[in-house]
C-alpha cells in the first residue's frame, strides 16, 4: 500500500511538470486547444491510480479491525475507519 501511495504521489508530481511543459508547448505553437486535452488525459491516469489505492483501503480496514479484535493493545492504533474508506474516493 505504501508503494502504491508513493507511486501516486510521484505520478502527481510528474503530472504537474508535464502540464507545465504542455502549456508552454501549446502556447509557443499556438495550439492552446490541445493543452487542456493533454492535461486532462494525464490527470485521468493519476486519478485511476489513486482509485486503485482507495480500493485497497477496505481490505486494510478489515485487516486492521481483525487485528484490533485479536490484540486489544492495537486498538488505539486503529485509525482507518468507515469514513476514511468512503472519503478516499471523493
From TrEMBL:
It comes from the Bacteria. InterPro entries: DUF2884. This is DUF2884 family protein. It comes from Lysobacter firmicutimachus.
Amino acid at each position: 500500500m505504501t508503494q502504491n501511495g508513493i507511486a501516486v504521489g510521484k505520478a502527481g508530481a510528474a503530472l504537474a511538470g508535464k502540464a507545465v511543459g504542455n502549456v508552454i508547448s501549446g502556447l509557443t505553437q499556438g495550439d492552446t486547444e490541445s493543452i487542456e486535452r493533454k492535461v486532462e488525459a494525464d490527470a485521468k491516469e493519476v486519478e485511476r491510480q489513486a482509485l486503485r489505492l482507495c480500493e485497497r483501503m477496505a481490505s486494510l480496514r478489515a485487516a486492521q479491525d481483525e487485528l484490533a479484535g485479536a490484540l486489544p493493545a492495537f486498538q488505539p492504533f486503529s485509525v482507518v475507519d468507515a469514513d476514511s474508506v468512503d472519503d478516499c474516493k471523493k
